[in-house]
Amino acid sequence: MPRFARLGAVFLTFARNSLIRDMTFRANFLIELASSLSWVFMNLGFYLLIFRYSPSIGAGTGWGKWEFFAFVGTGLIVNSLTGMFFMTNGDEFGEMIRTGTLDFALLKPIDTQFLVSLQRVEWSSTGNLVVGLVLVPISAAYLNAPIGLLQAALYGMFVVCGVVILYSLLFSFAATSVWLGRNTSLLDFWFYIVSFSRYPMEIYQGRLGGPIRWFFSFVIPVLVAVNVPARVLVRPLYPQASGDWLFALSAPIAAAASFAACRWIFIVALRSYRSASS
User: Fold this and answer.
1) From its phi and psi, is residue 145 left (phi > 0), alpha (psi between -120 and 50) or beta?
2) How far, in Å, are 174, 183, 196, 197 from residue 190 at the CA level?
3) DSSP H or E stretch at residue 194
4) Triad 189, 193, 194: Cα angle to 5°
5) pLDDT at 242 (0 to 100)
6) Do residues 132 and 76 make contact, with C-beta atoms less than 8 angstroms apart?
7) What is the pTM of this model?
8) Of 66, 236, 43, which Cα lies nearest the Cα of 139?
9) Spatial contact of 118 and 89, defined as CB atoms under 8 Å apart
10) Which three-class secondary structure state does DSSP give residue 214?
11) Helix 222-234 and helix 242-272: axis angle, to 10°?
């Protein structure tokens, strides 16, 4: 069996086992689902309230009501996919080191990073994902911006790039558990950093906003993760708009660089790892 087919089969086993576990404890699953959906709808209500008094987010930014809701829907998709596949696994990686269960992962004939990254799927995140998938086409319809085949393909590719960027940042922080033992503070810091991507990058202006925008676009590219797919959705790319294409290309470049850095940090961390029995 080809390597990628074998990894795909392993992932499907992880996903099935996670679903069985969630359905075994249905009440907990429903509570988590309701909790995450409540948070989403409260935020949507808050944004609706803002647009009762303002036609756009920031003067001259171009992010009106439905452009912004397309952005919010994109953010929900990117963050839900990250949370669904990677959040719990990143959080539990430190426990694997502390308790020594990482020893068993290292003995398995499969890539260790793949194993620890995808061994658990949080199906309760599908609620937020569905809201995002519904919100995006509704916003596009209100904008009279039908989504063509090429635009949908580019949007999907850039969403994947955004997930890769957030995953790489998450597991770069998680890998530091090898040296720090417990790194819950760093994982909390990941949440704080990702919160910058909840709004369009155009709002970061001026003496303070400019450096923030530059840092979170080129050093830690969390702004790229959501802004690029959202902008492609509400502002279609045209062949003559070279600046727009250069901005769009920043997503795959940032994703490749982020994953390469994450992979390097993870490998270096494993080389420093000493089993719980040593």
Assistant:
1) beta
2) 10, 11, 10, 12
3) helix 184-194
4) 115
5) 47
6) yes
7) 0.89
8) 66
9) yes
10) helix
11) 150
The Cα–Cα gap between 166 and 147 comes to: 25
- Cα angle 13, 16, 20 (rounded to 5 degrees) comes to 135
Burial label, 239 (beta-carbon count in 10 A; 0-12, 13-18, 19+)? exposed
Residue entry with tokens 């802004």: 227
Backbone angles phi, psi at 71, to 5 degrees: -65, -45
The amino acid sitting at 253 is I
Spatial distance between the Cα atoms of 127 and 206, rounded to a whole number of angstroms: 37
CB 216 within 8 A of CB 150: no
Residue 56, helix vs strand vs coil: strand
What is the C-alpha to C-alpha distance for residues 130 and 3, in angstroms, rounded to an integer? 31
pLDDT in tens, 66-94: 888 999 999 999 999 998 999 888 888 87
Contacts of 190 (CB under 8 A, 6+ apart): 169, 170, 173
Give how far Cα 196 sits from Cα of 108, 157, 179, 221, Å: 38, 22, 27, 10
